[in-house]
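Anyone opening a protein record will find just a pair of labelled lines. A complete record is shown below as an example.
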Amino acid sequence: MDNATGERAGYRRSAGSPRGEARRRELLEQVTDDVAENGLVDFSLRRAARAAGTTHKVLLYHFDGPEDLLRQAVVTLRARRIGNALAAGTAEAATLTARVRVAWHSLRDEESQLRRVLDQAMGLAMYDPGRYAALGRGASQQYLPTLVSFCPPHWPDQRKHEVAEMILAALRGFLVDLLTSEDGSGAEAGFAALLRAVEREEAAG
């Protein structure tokens, strides 16, 4: 606590300094790599410090405690996933249906550990919202802009968002099915149905 203001200190102490911000980003990338490899279970500042080759006091200088650091690591992991899906979807496909298909293949074929870690984050947010709500809060806001960008540009904004919400909800369910089923056949069948629905939306003009 900052005794003068009653506010937690955290990474605001390094805000505004290009060197401090660069160091914060470097630490975050290193901690994110550890979270991607080892998951969220038993995450702590000391574990994060070992992964970043520093001390927990240094992390507390740049981040607002372990929950803030973990939240930012999860956000960074989602951004990596979104970047991969966006790059694949826009480079190889021209229609919404084709982009969704390519994005799904990117998500389906990504490392199962990454899917597991991001699902762990959502699970923790639901299981203990008092402590981990931030891990789930804003997830849709990260994913939706990419899906909206896949939609035909002439569509009204409301329609883009409605279709993007439908696609996001379905893909989330399919990713969970991939992690919990033996062969993923349910996810593939569901995805085929989703593509038919998206094709109908495109055909409607």
